[in-house]
Amino acid sequence: MRLPGEKILVVKYSSLGDIINAMPAVRLLKEAGGMDVYWLVKEELAEVLDCVDFLDGAILLSKGLGGIRAASRAAKSIDLTSTVDLMGIFKSGVITYLSGTSNRISFPHTREFSSIFYNRTMGLDRSTGIHAVRENVSVVEGILGKKFSDEELDYGIVQDGPSILKAKELLKSSQKGPLVVINPMTRWPSKVYPKDKFSHLVRGLTAEGIAVAFVGVGKDKAYIDSIIEGSGSSALNLAGKSDLKTLISIIKMATMVVSCDSGPMHIASAVDTPVLAIFGPTDPSYTGPFRSNSRVISTMESCSPCRKRSCSDRFCMDNIDPESVYGIAMEMIEEYTK
What is the pLDDT of residue 1? Predict the structure, then answer.
């Protein structure tokens, strides 16, 4: 399909982790040469595209029908030749169709009857057990007619000087030895590991002289304060103190990251920082950390992965032993101390 002069729009507008998992595929598409590549994302996630340097432009999706109409008009104004939908749901399918391109491409596993909007299907089906990164890349492999090894999959994330300096300033009291960055929050209540168990982890790490810094958005500050208070430690609470670029630099500077299934977990994998991922209701084989220097801890309950955003039982998260999390974290710190 690849022709010089093609203009391709990639539709992957949320969430942060899903956008990050699509970066290797979109970078490969651009670096194949001869094509202009644009990316459509939600307005509130536009900052994530400022962290890469391989795009020719972006289209921002605002809320409601008006947002879809505006995004579709913007797409048509570029005179696109192809649209690649890496979401495969009804809303993304509508946007793909309204982009006005003759080539409307997605992967085999689509939902919400979105398949009616595409005229080409490429790539692997996620039901085969592939990772989300590989699912996205397989679509690009179909477009380019070329296979790529895991070693060729680069997220293309760049760091700038001001963000690195700000990260160093925020972490200045934690730079004398190993540093563990913890992200305790996610958008789904069902994916959150209990705060008393995080307190147990922090208590053990700081007792060994290991610096701990928590990251999160501003509204997470009080929750994180309670974790730190419960640990009796002086761990740093950086919630709300960094923009996305600075967060990336903080994670890059860490010895390792401990996180639930979340955007920061995927950032750690993208910048090759070892991550210990705590999983319950979601499938780590599909959305776990992609890099081989990471590990997943899960009790693999009979109901997992249920993919429920909320759950009254929460066995899958509540039954994960904090001492096991601590033990694995210590093993990884010993292995990866910089």
Answer: 55
Domain boundaries, the chain: 6-152, 161-336
Residue 67 exposed, middle or buried by CB count within 10 Å (0-12, 13-18, 19+) = middle
Six token digits for residue 157: 């994330």
Divide the 338 residues of the chain into consecutive groups of 10 and give the mean pLDDT of each group.
77 96 97 94 96 96 96 95 97 96 95 96 92 97 95 94 94 82 94 96 96 96 97 96 96 97 96 97 95 94 87 90 97 90
Q: Which CATH class is domain 6-152?
A: alpha beta
d(CA 75, CA 137) in angstroms, rounded, equals: 23
| C-alpha–C-alpha distance, residues 297 and 286, integer Å | 15
- 65: which residues sit within 8 A by CB, 6+ positions away? none
pLDDT at res. 128: 87
d(CA 8, CA 64): 24
Dihedral (CA of 88, 94, 100, 102) sign: positive
What's residue 174's pLDDT? 61
Alpha-carbon distance 245 to 247, whole Å? Answer: 5
CATH superfamily of the 161-336 domain = Glycogen Phosphorylase B; (3.40.50.2000)
Closest CA to 207 of 199, 195, 215: 199
Q: State how far the alpha carbon of 129 is from the alpha carbons of 109, 125, 287, in Å.
A: 12, 8, 11
Q: How many residues does the chain have?
A: 338
49-57 contact pairs (CB < 8 A, 24+): 50/244, 50/245, 51/157, 51/158, 51/244, 51/245, 51/248, 52/23, 52/27, 52/155, 52/156, 52/157, 52/158, 53/156, 53/158, 54/26, 54/27, 54/30, 54/156, 55/26, 55/30, 56/30
* Domain pair 6-152 / 161-336, same fold: yes
- Which residues are CB-neighbours of 47 under 8 A, at least 6 positions away? 243, 244, 245
pTM of the model: 0.93
Q: Which two tokens stand for residue 305?
A: 């992965």
State the amino acid at position 107 in one-letter form: F
pLDDT value at residue 3: 55
